[in-house]
């Protein structure tokens, strides 16, 4: 397998940082990684924007999931300033297919859009 492009590598690095519990608990660290126009469709189907997801993740009573493990992460550079990542996550037995769009800004690569879809077994999943 060939090495990812520098843009894809930076998007993957950002995505992995977002899975870190320390980053997820810090409004400043999240704000540095989320695009001002960020939107998300969560595993519950709820729609999130940048402000609401930062508030929810950093609240004192926010649920703290166990370690989030990522697998099958791959990316494609769609344009000079746009990268698409797909991957799976697992935490406490809950698995999700994930898709992210990362946009290049004057401050670096930032997560613009994210969607997570829970799954139990996926007979079409690539090994």
Structure, explained:
It is built from four helices and six strands. It has a six-stranded mixed β-sheet. The mean pLDDT is 91. The chain is an alpha+beta fold and 127 residues long. The longest helix has 13 residues. Helices cover 26% and strands 44% of the residues.
Key terms:
44% strand; six-stranded mixed sheet; 127 residues; single chain; alpha+beta
What's the Cα radius of gyration?
14 Å
Give the overall pLDDT as a whole number.
91
Coarse structural class: alpha+beta
Distance between the termini: 14 Å
Quaternary structure of the protein: single chain
Contiguous low-pLDDT stretches (5 residues minimum) are none
- List how many beta strands DSSP finds: 6
Helix content, binned percent? 25-40%
> Given the C-alpha coordinates, what overall shape results?
globular
Strand order of the largest sheet: 2-1-6-5-4-3
Number of helices: 4
Strand-residue proportion: 35-45%
Helix and strand pattern: HHHEEHEEEE
Largest sheet: 6 strands, mixed
Question: SSE layout and pairings?
Answer:
Layout: H1 6-18, H2 21-24, H3 27-33, E1 34-41, E2 47-49, H4 50-58, E3 69-79, E4 82-91, E5 94-105, E6 108-119
Parallel strand pairs: 1-6
Antiparallel strand pairs: 1-2, 3-4, 4-5, 5-6
Give me a quick take on this structure.
This protein is of the alpha+beta class and 127 residues long. It is built from four helices and six strands. The longest helix has 13 residues, at 6-18.
